[in-house]
Each structure stands twice: as structure tokens, then as C-alpha cells.
Write a structure and sequence with these properties.
transmembrane; 8 helices; ECF transporter S component; ECF_trnsprt_substrate-spec; mainly alpha; two-stranded antiparallel sheet; Arp2/3 complex 21 kDa subunit ARPC3; ECF_substrate-spec_UCP037395; transmembrane helix; 273 residues
Length: 273
Amino acid sequence: MIRMTSRSALILAIASLIGLITLVWPLLLNDPTSTRVQPPFVFLALLPVVVAVVLAELAQGGLDPRVLAILGVLTAIDAVLRGISAGTGGVELVFFLIILAGRVYGPAFGFVLGCTSLFVSALVTAGVGPWLPYQMLCSAWIGLGAGLLPRAHGRAEIALLAAYGVVVSYLYGLLLNLQGWPLLAGVAIPGHHEQLAFDPAASLGENLVVFVKYTLITSTTSYDTMRAITTAVAITLLGAAVLTPLRRAARRATVTGSVSGRATEAVDVPSVG
């Protein structure tokens, strides 16, 4: 649906690397003289720019109006799904559609849908904040990965997508925790005597152990697990029914692009998987 050239893939890889660095940078510090970490705000300013550059690059080849229409409709539906679930108790439906659309329309479309869905849903649910670029990037990775899954058909495909939904639900919670955890000071969980805060004077291994404990206690056993269950159940029950109209729309949509600066003719896009 959205053409990914070798240059687009390279830019996407570089952007993903930059995004990963913005998530893990505190763990690379080791400053015995410091008692708290100060975030490099240039990273916070850079990440939205990086995401915008990737989206512009992916759209540079030209998008058929029907492709834009499909993207707009799926973004709106995903925003509504997130609005009615809102992550309450970990019940989160937003990744269900991102995974299925990424599966059908490919990794580039999945990446863009992951970004637009989280952005629009944040506007709808008043969830705009410094965490939003990280949420957009992580959900974009989910859509990207769905488009790269191996071929499968029938029940095997649904099982593959459900299993993928479980894995990325936990990874999403892990990465979002990593974004916020180093900025919390004096973290202590009721019922636990040990401190679970990031220590800039500690080694990488020591901070990783504390982070794993923090994640297991605060999100893995609650929010992340509920998100994984919700996503897997939705894919299992509704996946086949949703994949059918998505693939029908894919067969009717066309994409125009350019190769080495030369325009190409519109072509039919075969369904994936």
C-alpha cells in the first residue's frame, strides 16, 4: 500500500535506532557524583522530528487517494477503539487493528498507522504529553513488525498474529516503562522495602536488575498482561472477520510511486499472507 524503497528502509532503520537511543540512554550513564538524572531535552525535541521525517519519506513516492482514505478510516477507528478502552486496567484495543492492518498492507503502512493512530487517539483522549512521541514510535514498530511476519494461512495465521500480539504487548509496556522510570526519584512500592528507582551511580547490570523488578511489580503482572490478553482475544475472535474486508480493500487500492525519480503507473496491490 505504501511503497518502501531501499532509501526509505534505511531512513526508517536510522530513525528506529535514534528512537531506541532516546529510550535507553539513561542506562548508559555511570556518574557516581550524581543523585538524579536530567533528561537531555534535545532528545525529546528530536524524536517528533525523526518520526515526521520518516512519515514524509514513506509518503514521498505518492499515495493513491484510496490508500489515504483507508489510512484515515483505520486511524479514526483505532482512535475510537482506544477511546472506549482507554487502557483501563490494561484493557487496550488499539494494537488489535494496527497488527491486522500491518499484516495486510505491509510494514510501511503498519508503521504509519501506528504513528497516526496513537497521535489522533491522544488528541481525542487528552493524552498529549512528552510521552506521546515514544508511544507513537513504539506502536509504529508494532505495525512494522506485523508486516514483516512470515506467511501463514487460516488458523495458523490467526495463531501467529495472536502470539505476536502477546509479545508486543509486553514489549510495549517494557519500552514505555524504560522511558519514564529513570526520571522517577525515590520509587518505592507499597509492600516492598527496597528502592526501585534508577541510580545514575550504579552500573548497567545493577540498574537493569532494578528495572526488571520495577517492571514486573508495576506493569507486567497487571497492565501488560491485560493488554496482552485483550489483544490476543480480539485477534482470535475477530481477526478472520476483519482480515477479509481489509484484504478486499487492498485489492481495490492502488499506489503510485517513483523509482529513481521516475513516476510509475498505478498497479494493483496483492494481499499479504
